[in-house]
Amino acid sequence: MQKPIEPMKDTNMKCPNCGGDHWENVDKFRLKPSGMGLCMSCGFVSYPAKWKSKEEIFAHYRTDYRNPPTHANLLRANERITFTINFFTTLSENWKAEKNRKPAICEVGAAFGASLNFFRQIFPQADVSGTELTTSMRRNAAHEFGIKLSEDIDESKTYDLIMSYKVLEHQVDPHLELERYAKLLKPGGLLYMSVPTWFKSLYNFGMSGFDLEYYFDPNHINVWTREMFESMLKRAGFEIVKADQVIYSSTYLCRVNPEMKKSQW
Ligand SMILES: [Zn+2]
Predict the structure, then answer these.
(1) 196 CA to middle of ligand 1, Å?
(2) Which of 111, 160, 213, 248 has its CB surrounded by the most CB atoms within 10 Å?
(3) Domains along the chain with CATH numbers
(4) How many angstroms does the Cα of residue 216 sit away from the middle of ligand 1?
């Protein structure tokens, strides 16, 4: 007989998707209990009892989350750059057409700086900056590319492009992060955003080999469907101008459009 679903204890976290505070503990569906909670108002999945504060999660990412970068990181970064070149074709042509263009580019979770270095090669005048919590990655960005990363965005500047590639699923209060990026973009500025979204390819659901642990990595403290994530972008005031759902999960180029907050979602 199935165990009844239990309310989640020991959390005051509000659902970033709907603001609700009624979480159910759904650990019984996992191989290993991990504190997974399901928002009973909207279905958003998170780990509301696992991370109590931003500082706790910062400490985890500084030292525990990733090993120092190796050649494998460089290979993966180079693969992604091919995708990025295609994704940004129109933007880079527009910027190149503007003489004396000096774009300010910020990457949140810049790892060891490969993407920022790529953009600097295309736009040698660019002002590139970024954030990274993992200390070994930050050191590598400085040594390898001469790019000094910090733990948080420099809010004294505004940006032509803010990039966040597979980072938002690791951050507490993702809806507030998006609102912050909207404020830090210059008029006409762009947000490049990629997150994993789920339930697109549960083709082997219920069959041997289906692995819930793979779909719900406890490091991914926010778990969206595509519809949920696009709603969150709109609520933060972003209009999607380009999207790719195939090659690298859900990847978007967005611009600020306050009208989006008024639309139905
Ligand atoms: Zn919710």
Answers:
(1) 18
(2) 111
(3) 1-50 (no CATH), 52-262 (3.40.50.150)
(4) 17
